[in-house]
Amino acid sequence: MNSSSRRRRPTAAALTALAVAAGATACSSGSGSSGTEGAGSGTYTIWDPYPQFDKSSAWAKLLDQCGTKAGVKIKRTGFDTSDLGNKTLLAAQQGNSPDVLIVDNPVVSTLAEAGVLTTTDDNKLDTSKVDPNLLAAGQSGGKTYGTPIGANTLALYYNKKVLKEAGVDVAAVKDWTSLTAALEKVKKAGKKGITFSAIGTEEGSFQFLPWFWGAGGKLTELDSAQAVSALSLWKDWLNNGYAPNSVLNNTQTTSWQEFAGGDYAFAENGTWQLANAKKAGFDYGVLPIPAANGGQAAAPTGGEFVTLPVQKATGRYAVSQRLATCLTSGDNLYTTDTTLSYVAPTSEVQDKQVAANAELKPWVVAVKAARGRTSDDLGTKYPKISEQMWKAVQSALSGSKSPKDALTSAQSAVK
Question: Using an 8 Å Cβ cutoff, are 298 and 154 in contact?
Fold first, then answer.
């Protein structure tokens, strides 16, 4: 083991970072313990953030199949996404980490910096086929700590009927100027423009990031002119009635519900709404979020990483590696990512997904341009940056501060 995989006691800073970096969506919590046994044990533990899948699900059956292939039994526990990171840190403190951990990608760097995870150099997981921009979400300090099981991101859903009635050609929406012009036409036609989530949580930062990055903003410079232009865009939309004041309290779910009512032209939302889009009862399309001056803005990557936590019994790593490899093999990735409404992390499986479902094509394009929130070695710095970002968004959109003053305060708080 190199120094990156030696056991260290997780710090208070790591616990705080996890509390902020918890995933934007949550399900009911599972329960259980790792029960990690000696290296010769026939039972291996897997923790995941999918408590919605019971023992009869395709996911649980896949875990069992991978266990059978590796010659071991699987003890699987599904936790709420917001609980999983903290439970993992506690298990590491107690010396009973799970053998395989599937965790939301922003949490990977926090666990890595706390000394909880092995690197791919140590555990020999093959990441050679993974798209580099997706793999970056699990990298810290020049090391890689796992492999993505799938990814999702954000784009713009649009209502074809609303745009047609407003005389908007969606093909002409290529930058912020043309998008804003489209919103103006929609409003004049008596319909509603765009809805999104600007709530004061990670969801708000998650939805603001494509505009922030699309302006050329950097997370280390929240008060840059580019950042101010992005927040000013949102503020102007509210001032002109192109976006509703409800965005201040909207989650991604309530924002979607507004769009599903049929009066909005656009909604910023994710891959996970595809099934609901088909139920909405109107023709829709998907448009990559445009950058300020044209082209596609980078949106943040969602999704989980398969990681191997540090174990006292190092003889367990070989089997754990086989389990992780089985879960992320091509055929299994296709099945799993279809179940989770994820885009696969490899071009090979992405092509297979699009061949089976052409509606995934714009999402594959969006995922290929996406960016990890903790990339660029931000690691545990990201949660603090994100918190100040969503506070700035709230301050500006509510009118308590100008976009410039809100972001200046945010940058000062980060420092």
Answer: no
* CB atoms near residue 277 (< 10 Å): 18
Predicted confidence band at 41 (pLDDT cuts at 50, 70, 90)? low
Structure tokens at 295: 């082209």
Cα–Cα distance measured from residue 63 to residue 73, given in angstroms and rounded to the nearest whole number: 9
What residues does 268 pair with on adjacent strands?
Answer: 156
Contact in structure between 308 and 324 (CB atoms under 8 Å): yes
**DSSP string covering 262-329, please?**
S-EEEEEEEGGGHHHHHHSSS-EEEEPPBPTTSSBPP-B-B-EEEE-B--SSGGGHHHHHHHHHHHTS
Distance (Å, whole) CA 106 – CA 74: 26
The pLDDT of residue 20 is 44
* pLDDT at residue 37 in the model: 45
Q: Which residue has the higher pLDDT, 331 or 154?
A: 154
β-partners of residue 75 are 45
Q: What are phi and psi of 195, to 5 degrees?
A: -125, 150
DSSP codes joined into one string, 84-124: HHHHHHHHHHHT---SEEEEEHHHHHHHHHTT-B--HHHH-
pLDDT at 15 over 50: no
- Give residue for tokens 């790591």: 14
pTM value?
Answer: 0.85
Banded model confidence at residue 9, pLDDT cuts 50, 70, 90: very low
By DSSP bridging, strand 100-104 and strand 43-48 are: parallel
Whether 138 contacts 308, CB under 8 Å: no
